[in-house]
Every structure is written in structure tokens, then in C-alpha cells.
């Protein structure tokens, strides 16, 4: 019964947020960053100024270098190793606690 209440509540909240989003979109423009460019100057000649309520974000045009990729791969391997050891240690400790609990239950 508890799961049913959580599911119904989440559907109601999701529906409310969806309805509020549709209402906000009908009332005015949504700040999604796709409006026309502003004519104001931001100090750099090749960078257009952001419109009111917007932020200009520079996006890199070239991909990561091979050093970045190697460092990312090594970091992924370290993260995988640490998480595997942590999970194994947690499972071992859980088994140990269960074993001690069962032994204490049957010996007393």
C-alpha cells in the first residue's frame, strides 16, 4: 500500500509540474537560450553579447587531446577499482554481521 501512495503522489506532482510548464510557456517566452542575438557589445569583437536574462557560454570546437583521454580512462579504472573493493568489503562485513548474529542466536 505504501508503494501505491508513493506512485500516485509522484504522478500527481509530475502532472502538476507539467501543467505549470505548459501554462508558463503560453504566458510568455521560455528562457531556453534560442532567441535572436543582441546588438550590445560585450568587449570582444567576435563574441556576441548575450540578451537580457541569458548567459553566453563558450563551447570548445575541438575534442579532448589524447592526454585528456588517457587521464580520463585511468581515472575511470581507479574509480572502478575503488568502488569494486568498497562493495566487496561492504558485502563481506554484512555477511560477517549476519554470521555473528546467527551464532549468538543459536549459542544462547
Structure description:
There is one protein chain. By secondary structure, the chain is mainly α. It has a domain at 72-108. It has 2 helices and no strands. It has helices spanning 2-27, 66-107. It starts with a helix and ends with a helix.
Short description:
With 108 residues, the protein is an all-alpha fold. Helices cover 63% and strands 0% of the residues.
Comma- or semicolon-separated keywords:
mainly alpha
Low-confidence segments, given as residue ranges, are none
The average pLDDT is 80
Q: What count of helical segments does DSSP give?
A: 2
Order of helices and strands: HH
Shape verdict: flat
**For the CA atoms, what is the radius of gyration?**
27 Å
Largest sheet: none
How are the SSEs placed, and which strands pair?
Layout: H1 2-27, H2 66-107
